[in-house]
Amino acid sequence: MIYPENAVDKLGFTEIKALIKTYCLSEMGSQMVDKIQPLHQFDQINKFMRQTYEFKEILVNDSPLPIEHLYPIRRFAEKARVEGAFLTEEEFFHVSLSLKTVFAVIRYFNERDGQYPNLEALFEHLPIEKSIIRDIEQVLDIKGKIKPNASALLADITANISKAEQEARKRIDQVFKNAQGSGWTADGNLTVRDGRLCIPLLAENKRKVKGFIHDESATGQTVFLEPEEVFHLNNKVRDLEFDKRREIIRILVELTDRLRPNIPLLLAYHGLLSKLDFVRAKALFAIELEADMPQLSNDPSLELINAKHPLLLLNFKKEKQTVVPLNVKIDDQQRVIVVSGPNAGGKSVCMKTIGLLQLMAQSGLLIPADESSKVGVFKQFFADIGDDQSIESDLSTYSAHLSKMKHFTENASGKTLVLIDEFGTGTDPQFGGPIAEAVLEVLNRKKIRGVITTHYSNLKSFANAAEGLENASMLFDNTAMKPLYILETGKPGSSYAFEIAQKIGLPQEVLNAAKQKIGAQQKRVDTLLVDLEREKKSLSDTKRLLDRRTLDIDKLQHDNQELQRYLEENKKGILKQAKLEAQEIIKNANKLIENTIAEIKHTKADKDRTKDLRKNLQHALENNTVVEQRAKGIKQTNQEIAIGDWVKIIDSGNVAQVIEIAKDNVILALGDLRSVVKRKRVEKMANKEVPKEIRKAHSATLTEELTGFYPEIDVRGMRTENALQAIEKYLDRAVMMGFPSLKIIHGKGDGILRKMIRDYLRKYTQVNRMEDEHPDRGGDGITNVHFN
């Protein structure tokens, strides 16, 4: 229940429905949009919202749904239901096209069985009755016209008409030729008058040719005559045309009789097409809003995270501005939020955002908020927004407010969402404040949920003391004297009346006089609120800095623990492997020494030969030393790997060059290939240890890529998944080769591909910023990606 009825207009829900209707393809889809209203059954809300979410997934990530022809089958079915009535050729053609769309949609979902369960439920147990289309196609051609051979009689009539028309044309051509030869005709050729083919004669010669005059020119100098010998042939054609029309009607009546038993099925097909158009429109609107599906619960509660007012979002998007997101929570402990703060600070927008998003969610629409947001179910929506004074009803502004308060206090419950803007205004504040406080006390006892905006100090004090009520304020930069449009719960806000008046330029003597007229207590309260605002902002900035540093410390600690864990896990294995290598080399060294001594003895201490043998022995001993150092942990080159270094992959022994380092991983270039491996699986190599042929090949490959690569890619016409894969390859190459930017041509369209590409690129740390191309060179159809 919504009270008053115009609350949907005040909150902007009517405008939301009007925007959704612009995405409908058919009248029946628009009619369903008109019927959108908040639901109170959790299962229905969940089903409708999931249908919209699934259709959004199809539009963004899957092949297009084959929705081409949507005609109102219900109207044709109701007409065919009447005995003796028949559908026209055009109506049968529209039925055929609509049924082909229905069958294509059913096949589409059957190919994706189980992928979109809530959309599949729309046509569950709905059969594909192809005999209807076959019957229609036996009678109509591909353009929706009756086939000449739809029946044997129709074929004969059509042939006779053609024969009679040819004979009539032959006769009249002969008469016309003779008249021309005699000089009786006027300028011009054969023409049609009253559906009859006539020849133009000069008026003075009209008696020279027997026939019937059907018309004359404006000047009276030319008459249009149908020759007597052609008259009977034209009458025959006319009679045959009547026979043809009667036969066509007979065929259509017979076809309608065959269609009549399938009327219930046609109505079911109509329902499916209507719902698909309806859900599609909601999904397209959700994409435009960048809306998502929140978590649903059956409790009268809500928690909005990074929520945005839909209408404000669309308006700001046109002006290329951003909306400050809203974060708010209403539950059993924090049932009513009392929002205060400066004028034009965003209090009303905050309240309307909460009310509108709750209405949208309970109507099965996705909302522009983070997917981690939570939305419950309210059975009643009560709103007091704006000036509802009525001359006809003799209601003043304040009387209108009081009549609403009467209804609220009598009918509200724990499952009512109450929204009141500028609570208590419209009368003397000395009396309006206490009345508003009394109404709020009654509503609080009823355990209502809601949002109330106010400037009254007594309501702020009451909210501070009453259980279930929570003060909140719209933040204000009291240095720059401008609102921040950020809602902060836990404390009331100052109206900043004097500060704003001073900034506007109100004379100082006026401000001083005003300050003397307000009570000392009110001065102290307002000053205290301003001081609290400043202290809160300072503490908030400090807290953010500490949180950032805490995160950095936690990350360093985590990385250190991971490294220590790795060393502990692999210490024994590394030492064991090193010892085995050392033992093997020592064994080989001993053998080499014995062989060297034997060779020296055999050559009888030849100087040159002895010198060569000593060099070989020295080289073997150096290799042995390297192995011993590795076993003792002296060699620690892996700790200083940087971009551009050459490394060896421990498992395979392959040599590669480091092109990027990401946390515990390194991205390597192995020729034309790119590979991501754990940092602990590679060891650094000196440049001189890298084989010359590998360095030379890498340099040649890089040179070839630099000369043949241009940082621009065109993904127009690609599916989203294919486009992102192609962009990822170009991005890697552009970054590796040191290009400062990359141009992506994606086209304008409805902006879906542009949004998906930019969202995808934001995860890359190498991306500094993204911007549209200059309007003269493509505008928002091209994205320029700039790298760090």
TrEMBL record:
Coiled coil: 529-606
Subunit field text: Homodimer. Binds to stalled ribosomes, contacting rRNA.
Family indicated by similarity: Belongs to the DNA mismatch repair MutS family. MutS2 subfamily.
Organism in which the protein naturally occurs: Olivibacter domesticus
GO biological process assignments: mismatch repair; negative regulation of DNA recombination; rescue of stalled ribosome
Keywords: ATP-binding, Coiled coil, DNA-binding, Endonuclease, Hydrolase, Nuclease, Nucleotide-binding, RNA-binding, rRNA-binding
Source domain of life: Bacteria
PANTHER family membership: OS10G0509000 PROTEIN, OS10G0509000 PROTEIN-RELATED
Name of the top EC class for this enzyme: hydrolase
Residues holding ATP: G341, P342, N343, A344, G345, G346, K347, S348
Function field: Endonuclease that is involved in the suppression of homologous recombination and thus may have a key role in the control of bacterial genetic diversity.
Annotated Smr domain residues: 713-788
Enzyme Commission number(s) from the entry: 3.1.-.-, 3.6.4.-
Name of the protein in its database record: Endonuclease MutS2
Single Gene Ontology MF annotation: rRNA binding
NCBIfam families: mutS2
Gene3D superfamilies the UniProt entry points to: 3.30.1370.110, P-loop containing nucleotide triphosphate hydrolases (3.40.50.300)
